[in-house]
Amino acid sequence: MRKLAMLIVLAAAATVVSAQEMRMPVSTTAPSQSDAQKAFEKLKTLAGSWQGTIMGMSVQETIRVTSRGNAILHEMTSSAMPDNPITMIYVDGDRLLLTHYCDSGNRPRMEGKISADGNTVEFNLVDITGNTDKGFMNRIVFTLVDANHHNGESNFMLPGNRSLGVKGVFQRTK
Q1: What integer pLDDT is reported at residue 117 of this predicted model?
Q2: What residues are paired with 122 via a beta bridge?
Q3: Contacts with 134 (C-beta within 8 Å, 6 or more apart), sequence order
Q4: What would you measure as the largest C-alpha separation in the chain, in angstroms?
Q5: How many CA atoms lie within 13 A of 8 on its CB side?
Q6: DSSP symbols for 130-147
Q7: What is the pLDDT of residues 101-145, one digit of tens each?
Q8: Cα(159)–Cα(143) distance, rounded to whole angstroms?
Q9: Between the CA of residue 97 and those of 81, 87, 100, 119, 171, what are the distances in Å?
């Protein structure tokens, strides 16, 4: 008899909880995006192939959204470069992060911030792993001009604490 009474009490409690859950309002508005997510979505629009010039050298960029939309792969190639460095961009919590796999043998990690107008994303060094004897990247900037043009800037720290800044102008080819 006690077991039957307990079952009835439990069933009644479950019915009350279920009825209360059904009356709770369901939000129909999407949660607002963090600045990191807004910047990431903006950078996703760069997916494609690009032709540009850096320090008088012709370079090609390939930018690809990968990992089910959770990462952006940036690869730069040029006949003037011995290797093709890659960069991965991703959101981690409320931070936009970039890891640059440098041909200098290190991996600087940078945090990005979007400009007030939403057209520029600037990444600055957070930390670095690997050998820094040959230098390392400590800043990368993407400025979106329009759907078919963007500018890039980067700063490379050379041995002896000397800084080398470069700028590039890119046009979409695909």
Answers
A1: 96
A2: 113, 141
A3: 104, 105, 159
A4: 90
A5: 5
A6: E--TT-EEEEEEEEEEET
A7: 998 899 999 999 999 999 999 999 999 999 999 999 999 999 999
A8: 28
A9: 25, 10, 10, 17, 25
Domains identified in the chain and CATH numbers: 35-172 (2.40.128.20)
**Which letter, b or e, does each residue of 113-151 get, where b requires 16 or more Cβ atoms within 10 Å of its Cβ?**
ebeeeeebbbbebeebeeeeeebbbbbbbbbbeeeeebe
**Tokens in use for 72?**
């952006």
134 alpha-carbon distance from chain centroid: 26
User: Facing residues of 136 across strands?
Assistant: 157
The DSSP bridge partners found for residue 90 are 71, 97
Q: How far is CA 139 from CA 26, 98, 167, 168, in A?
A: 43, 10, 12, 14
